[in-house]
Amino acid sequence: MAGFGLVVRFTLKPGQETAFDELVSQTLIGIRSDEPGTHVYASHTVEGAPGVRLFYELYADRAAFDEHERQPHVQDFLAARGEHVESYTVDFLDLIAAKDTD
Predict the structure, then answer these.
(1) Which of 102, 95, 101, 98 is nearest to 7 (CA)?
(2) Confidence (pTM)
(3) CATH 3.30.2130.10: does it fit domain 4-94?
């Protein structure tokens, strides 16, 4: 299994948790239907940190990630996230081993 991934840690503005989660849910509709190269796009809460969201994203390769970034639903997410997000960090990952569910 090859892949290109990233982890994003979002610190949300107080009171924006529900609105941010709804924005993510809307974005996932397009990801599921229009992005065959996106293998995993998961948003997680963090135990003990209600204002933090952690994304794990895994793509077939860097080209699939680049295609993801060009999608209108992703552009809409990027334009709207500032309303909800106080800060974020991104770590890019190169997959070396995994358990594939296929």
Answers:
(1) 95
(2) 0.91
(3) no
Which residues is 50 bridged to in the sheet?
none
With both helix axes pointing from N to C terminus, report the angle between 62-70 and 72-80 in degrees, rounded to the nearest 10: 70
Per-residue pLDDT tens over the stretch 23-60: 999 999 999 999 999 999 999 999 999 999 999 999 99
- Which sequence spans correspond to the domains of the chain? 4-94
Structure tokens at 1: 């299994």
34: CB partners within 8 A, 6+ apart: 71, 73
Rg of the chain in Å (alpha carbons): 14
Q: Are 90 and 6 in contact (CB under 8 A)?
A: yes
